[in-house]
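W.,

You were right to be curious about this one. When I first looked at the sequence I had no strong expectations either way, so I just let the prediction run and decided to look at it fresh. Below is the sequence, 364 residues in total, followed by the output.
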Amino acid sequence: MLASQGLAGNFFGNKKEGTLNAIEHLGYVQIDTISVVERAHHHTIWARLNDYKKTYLDELVETDKTVFEYWSHAAAFLPMRDYRFSLYRKNLYATGKLKWYFNKRATKFVYDRIVAEGPLQSKDFEEKKKKQGWWEWKESKRALEQLFIEGKLMIAKRQGFQKVYDITERVLPAGVDTKPPSEKEYAQYLVTKTIRANGLVANNEIGYLRRHAKTAIGKVLNEMEEEGLIMSVKIKGDNEPLYTTQQNLDLAASQKPSKTVSILSPFDNCVIQRNRLKRIFDFDYTIECYVPEPKRQYGYFCLPLLYGDTFAGRIDCKAERSEQVLYIKNVFYEKMPDEKLRAALGKALKKFAVFNGCKEVKMA
């Protein structure tokens, strides 16, 4: 599972090419706004490419147009080669089969402005005079998101992490396949990419936060297994089947876990499905920024620590970029650490500090 996630060695290559390889292999990289440490999408890629720079992702989106923003199970960067499969969800929203928000007058006003004026941000719709009516900022922001989720708008780039919207026809590069997939094709895509990225997966993990595809995924799994394209295996002592390929099993057999520490984002692809994390790795993890402070056990934004093939603990830290210091508030180990683990964490923290624009690591 870790080998398929690119967390068992240099699996994707380096620099911008490695960044694209990682996104295409994983299928998505989740976006999150929290910036206690570097934001989730950059953090997730960096955990797999130690020479990663944030400019690589910007270039892939804005210049190369080989990556785009849309919805996976959450807001994410997706490979442009998979663009047509985003159309399945977009059409469900456009036809009202999935609900988001709709105000016909507001969406027409917002869309027409972008057609006429070019790329705009939500702040460009902020209305100063309340008496000028229904297109107040909140209404326009909802309309932007509606047009985006339907696929009529895309995010051309970000400025200071703020989305810049443009009509889809002006963002899509030439030659992109825009034929909407059938339900079966969409389910096959979900099965294939999830097995590729995770090594072994359960049925419900493939349809994670995609209720609209649950039935189709079940049918496709049966068909692909009958055709010999995938196989089901079981973990000793666990009756739920996991789906994989012979290629993934061969990859696993060739890998040895390294005794290094990976500091992961709470939104990393490897840990985002908490039930899977608990079941496979016996690591009970919750991000506590959404938990009331008196009920927190580990801290506002604790990060999982992967040591070889074991989740060895979590660390609560914060990057104070103005001071260029990575402050460590606390470290929680699953069991008493030995000196090798402590030394490996020390090395990882030095690298993590540099990634976060910090020159030193201090205990808070």
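Here's what jumped out at me. The chain has a mean pLDDT of 92. And, maybe more interesting for your project: The chain has three domains: 83-171, 183-256, 261-363.

Coffee later to discuss?

I.
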